[in-house]
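4.2 Preliminary Data

To establish feasibility before requesting continued support, the project team ran the inverse folding procedure on a target of 164 residues. The structure was first converted into the token representation described in Section 3, and no sequence information of any kind was made available to the design step. The complete token record follows.
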């Protein structure tokens, strides 16, 4: 089957050891250095990514706080504006009511003045009528039936606006 030659075995071992030494000197050290450098680079990249993630989370948290603060401020402004609008509305309603009350009071005064004026005019006309009727009665010195007849005639002779 397999024949093993001891000389060949020794030279194979010597060649293997020489190749191993040459490879370790020439190829293994640069490969291990490259692997170590790559490992360090990956480790640094992972650390850098972790730092950036933490910074991003911090910035995100700050932005969320700013957004919450802005929302709270906006809500505060909205509430203040609602209160101001309500006060303004209330003020306008009260002003309108006061103006309406003033207009009503002035209208009542004017109506009262016109009423007093109409009553004074009516009194004056009634007095004139009474004086006119008395004048005719005195002029004629009549009895009761004639007196009534004179008053009726005088009333008929008056303009229609005074009768009503």
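Position-by-position output of the design step:
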């Amino acid at each position: 089957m397999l024949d093993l030659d001891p000389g060949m075995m020794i030279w194979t071992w010597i060649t293997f050891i020489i190749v191993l030494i040459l490879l370790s000197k020439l190829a293994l050290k640069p490969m291990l250095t490259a692997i170590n450098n790559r490992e360090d680079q990956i480790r640094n990249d992972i650390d850098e990514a972790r730092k950036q993630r933490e910074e991003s989370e911090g910035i995100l948290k700050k932005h969320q706080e700013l957004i919450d603060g802005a929302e709270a401020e906006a809500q505060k402004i909205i509430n203040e504006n609602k209160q101001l609008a309500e006060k303004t509305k209330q003020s306008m309603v009260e002003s309108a009511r006061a103006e309406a009350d003033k207009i009503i009071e002035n209208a009542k005064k004017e109506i009262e003045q016109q009423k007093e004026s109409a009553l004074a005019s009516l009194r004056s006309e009634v007095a004139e009528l009474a004086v006119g009727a008395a004048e005719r009665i005195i002029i004629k010195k009549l009895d009761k039936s004639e007196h009534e007849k004179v008053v009726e005639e005088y009333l008929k002779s008056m303009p229609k606006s005074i009768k009503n």
